[in-house]
Write a structure and sequence with these properties.
mainly alpha
Length: 143
């Protein structure tokens, strides 16, 4: 961290969640512009959404894996990294469960608002944990 300007790893993870949450707003705009599916919209809305969520993922996944590998006891680092990937797979399953509810939403924007709210909840939770995680990492001598 040159001149201590670079954010900590937990902060980067929190920003990754925030960026992912903001990507959902693109889909809300697309639904509104398309009159809830009554009119076609450009595929560029989806491309923009994937572009933004990919940026968020680049803040989140490699940083999380890095933290897990640095904070894990040496003899179980591989197991803990597997736990990180397991948590990712559980998240993917929950995402699929949420996606299965698509048909229950008459206003499709509400589906994306639920996604946005869940991501913002996770973001607020992570930002709330940043100070504690920074303290633990500092105690372990990890930046």
């Amino acid at each position: 961290r040159v001149r201590k300007k670079e954010p900590s790893t937990p902060t980067k993870i929190a920003f990754g969640l925030l960026i992912s949450a903001l990507s959902v707003l693109i889909m809300i705009a697309a639904v509104k512009i398309g009159n809830n599916g009554a009119e076609k919209v450009s595929a560029w809305w989806l491309v923009a959404n994937y572009g933004i969520i990919t940026i968020g993922e680049l803040f989140l996944s490699p940083m999380g894996l890095s933290v897990v590998s640095k904070l894990s006891p040496v003899n179980i680092t591989s197991l803990m990294m597997g736990g990180w990937f397991l948590s990712t797979s559980i998240g993917n399953k929950l995402s699929g469960v949420l996606a299965s509810m698509w048909d229950t939403y008459d206003d499709k924007a509400n589906f994306f608002w639920v996604n946005f709210a869940l991501l913002m909840f996770a973001t607020v939770l992570m930002f709330g944990l940043v100070k504690q995680l920074n303290k633990v990492m500092k105690e372990k001598g990890i930046n």
